[in-house]
Specification:
About 45% of the residues lie in helices and about 15% in strands. By secondary structure, it is α/β, with parallel strands linked by helices. InterPro entries: HTH_LacI, LacI/GalR-like_sensor, Lambda_DNA-bd_dom_sf, Peripla_BP_I.
Length: about 375
């Protein structure tokens, strides 16, 4: 029986191409630090020897894994946004010849374990922290990783970041409602108050800023917190419908919540937008089909740009470590926003119930 032919090694390719083993690794990984002539010789030698570079072999020679890790919350937090951003990351990294390694953290116990073990230290060349806020202690732990860290879908001052300006985007959307004539505008947001929440606070700031610029008073009772799920949104909308004065518009933290709001309002016989306008945030793929006015952001672009930023940092490690990319947003008017009804305009001008300033938790009792 004939002996099995020995598989070619990186050293065999290096000898045949007349270059060093490290040059073979760089050339086959597509890195730009190899001359065209050397790359051609390496690729020709690899084809003739039927050699394919493995990640483990490359790591032994260069100390690099060819992988980028992403740390993210479970998809249930924002399934469309996180899933689309992750797909964009994978696409961008693949074009750069890099693999994606995902660490999903769904609760505080898993989070504590990740920051205690820091598995990305030995498994990846860089880390993307996606869509949750780190404590100062956790930031310091990531500094110990010894690899570049990029923040995606959040602005981390002094750190490499890819994000949208949630304050400006929310301000623009609420200003649209004000320009239509609305003066009694509610804001519906998730009741989750933990560090997995990354954009909610900035959207609240933008909402409040638009009201202030328009000279409209602040009313705590109009900022309503909803628990996850359809039941939580129904209870939150129930709170709004029980107020002494019905809001004429509601700015909802995300499109996925806005879809539930539309369903609840219509099931209660509240005409949208005739009696109440609804504004979302995201431009979810279903937003156009549901004719939802919204503030659009590109989850795909956020992922792709984060991957591109990581790739550029790995290629130019001496560059600015705090470089950042701001993803543009745009307001998309559709059929769920319109001018307020005439009777509401009369009330807001002083002919009806005056606005209150409730301080109690609006979800209490539901």
């Amino acid at each position: 029986m004939a002996r099995e032919q020995r598989q070619a090694t990186m050293a065999d390719v290096a000898r045949k191409a007349g270059v060093s083993v490290s040059t073979v690794s760089r050339a086959l990984r597509g890195l730009p630090t190899v001359s065209p002539d050397a790359r051609d010789r390496v690729e020709r030698a690899a084809r003739e020897l039927s050699f394919a570079l493995s990640r483990s072999a490359s790591s032994l020679v260069t100390g690099k894994t060819g992988r980028v890790a992403v740390l993210m919350p479970g998809l249930e937090r924002a399934p469309w946004f996180l899933g689309t951003a992750l797909t964009g990351m994978a696409s961008g990294l693949s074009e750069a010849g890099l693999d994606l390694l995902v660490y999903v953290v769904t609760n505080e116990a898993e989070r504590a374990e990740f920051f205690d073990r820091l598995p990305a230290r030995r498994n990846a060349d860089a880390l993307m922290v996606t869509s949750f806020i780190l404590t100062e202690e956790e930031r310091e732990r990531l500094d110990d990783l010894g690899v570049p860290v990029v923040f995606a879908s959040q602005h981390a001052p002094g750190r490499a970041s890819v994000y949208v300006d949630d304050v400006a985007a929310a301000h623009q959307g609420v200003r649209h409602l004000i320009n239509l004539g609305h003066r009694h505008i509610a804001h519906l947001r998730l009741a989750v108050e933990d560090s997995f929440v990354w954009s909610a606070q900035d959207r609240l700031v933008g909402y409040r800023r638009a009201l202030k610029e328009a000279g409209l008073p602040w009313d705590d009772s109009l900022v309503v917190h909803a628990e996850y799920g359809r039941g939580g949104v129904r209870r939150a909308v129930g709170w709004l419908l029980s107020l002494p004065q019905l809001p004429t518009a509601v700015f909802v933290e995300s499109d996925e919540m806005a879809f539930e709001v539309l369903g609840v309002l219509r099931s209660c016989g509240i005409d949208v937008p005739g009696r109440m306008s609804v504004l979302g945030f995201d431009d979810h793929p279903l937003a156009e089909a549901m004719d939802l006015s919204t503030i659009a952001q590109s989850a795909w672009d956020t992922g792709r740009e984060a991957a591109g930023l990581v790739s550029s940092i790995l290629a130019e490690p001496c560059g600015d470590p705090a470089r950042h990319v701001v993803i543009p947003t745009r307001f998309i008017p559709r059929g769920t926003t319109a001018a307020p009804p005439q009777d509401a305009a009369a009330v807001s001008s002083g002919g009806g119930t005056q606005w209150g300033a409730a301080s109690a938790d609006p979800t209490e009792g539901f």
